[in-house]
């Protein structure tokens, strides 16, 4: 039996069952005995607890996700790191992964795909705005709840050290089927790497396939770098052209041609949602150094213009020859054939390029190859693994990330083009820079602070009474002078204070306590609780979320400390949306959708009998949420659509099809008596005429 099941963590979290097994941690369902809620607890596996690498990874996740608060990102409630156990307490999600859902459905309706990718991008935008890059976006890391909402999770390699694993191996950071080309190459990554992964997820949802498959992870990674994905519409013709363009723009190999931010991609998606027939006219296959095969594309366009009808309504000339494949029988463009032609042209160009590279690599023209990535290796291992290169050892450098004695820097950098058999200059790590706390004893406080800061340390001033040192001069430091420390470490400077000066105390950290706890903590150090203000917060009601003065501030004993406590999570705004149902067409089948996802099947209704002939539904969301579209569908056809704005609490009519023939009563046929009268009248008219 699992050793954690049935145990209490820190006396608070009762572990109940194992619900997920990961590479470096397991996830358990547990009960928070203090809050009486169900939570998920992610516990670092024992075999990794002694590894600095995995412990740093685990701490990275807790730090990254603790900075985030968004409805599409799993919440973190608590973290704990100790010699016995390391764990993160998170929101418990009762659902399945998006990957499982895609596998169940095979191909998702494009409206569902848009609904899901919108939520993913909103989560990424929130993270990116706070400087956090996920770097492992994949459907396995996204949970789908029964109400259709998504939660992005597993920030285990967010902001992970760039020096880690920067070559294409089976251990590459991120999952090879979803990583960006720059990740596969081992280059530095930013937020645009997450957008590439989002594009791959969108591709998979729309087509039921991954863009690149191969027998090994290395082969898939190489395809991410070099291969072009097949057109999504070639795999699924039902995909609108605009949505295909969005997908392919997100998956651009060149980061400069990719979406530059999640908000930019969201903007295009919103534009597409307003007009699904839109075409953005993005040029996906344009090379910065066009080959002669690009001329074929130009020739296609030129021929199309020449073959256009000379006047409106005229017939197009018959297309003959090779380029006829780019047109349908009715004379319209065959977009799929054009895309296939472009892809074929690039395939030929790529083959020529590869052939040319092969010739160059033989040494006929001097030969240039990609420099190996040596960062993190020993010089001996580098020489043994890459014996074809020459090595020059440069000056050693300090590094907080690379172990002493290993290669910390190289020139040229990994993957840069260089001469075959050329020389690589390497700089070995000396480990973190070690400093000796200088002697600032007896110096004036501000001068001592400046001296330590210039040395690369972080000085912290504290006051202390002294019989021998003048007021405002340094008594001592901690660590003491002459002690070895690392660059960036804190050094406390104890400064002499006046005998008449009141005792100074540090303001304690009050966040996370309630009012009674805050008052007790303040009283314990000789401070007084002052004004208590309620503020908006997602923290539970009554929990301290702010304080003035801030924690760590030195103040006189008896100082008043004001606090801010949470009003509790804000209640969602509820907006009622009503429609008048069509009468005179008999029974109807009514279904209601929110952003393309069905939220209510009202079943069969008959507006002619009972009730007021209208139907209402209530939707809810936070004021910060984006507006949603609520669509009423009758008998399988759109009836009315409303834009619901939670910030204003109003629903505005967006589209109205209630006047369409499908929702109008059939004309009443004339009776037999009226027909006779009409015939008699006509007959009389004829006689009179």
User: How many beta strands in the DSSP annotation?
Assistant: 31
Label the structural class.
alpha+beta
The major beta sheet can be summarized as: 6 strands, antiparallel
Q: What share of residues is helical?
A: 25-40%
Organism: Bittarella massiliensis (ex Durand et al. 2017)
InterPro entries: Kinase-like_dom_sf (IPR011009), PASTA_dom (IPR005543), Prot_kinase_dom (IPR000719), Protein_kinase_ATP_BS (IPR017441), Ser/Thr_kinase_AS (IPR008271)
Domain PASTA: 366-430, 431-497, 501-567
Protein name: non-specific serine/threonine protein kinase
Topology (SSEs and partners):
Elements: E1 8-9, E2 13-21, E3 25-32, E4 37-44, H1 46-49, H2 52-66, E5 76-81, E6 86-91, E7 96-97, H3 98-105, H4 110-129, E8 142-144, E9 150-152, H5 181-185, H6 191-207, H7 217-226, H8 232-235, H9 241-250, H10 262-274, H11 294-306, H12 335-361, E10 368-370, H13 379-385, E11 390-393, E12 407-411, E13 417-419, E14 423-428, E15 434-436, H14 445-455, E16 458-465, E17 474-478, E18 484-486, E19 490-497, E20 504-506, H15 515-524, E21 528-535, E22 544-548, E23 554-556, E24 560-566, E25 573-580, E26 588-594, E27 597-605, E28 614-621, E29 628-634, E30 637-645, E31 650-656, H16 672-688
Parallel strand pairs: 11-14, 16-19, 21-24
Antiparallel strand pairs: 1-2, 2-3, 3-4, 4-6, 5-6, 7-8, 8-9, 10-13, 12-14, 15-18, 17-19, 20-23, 22-24, 25-28, 26-27, 26-29, 29-30, 30-31
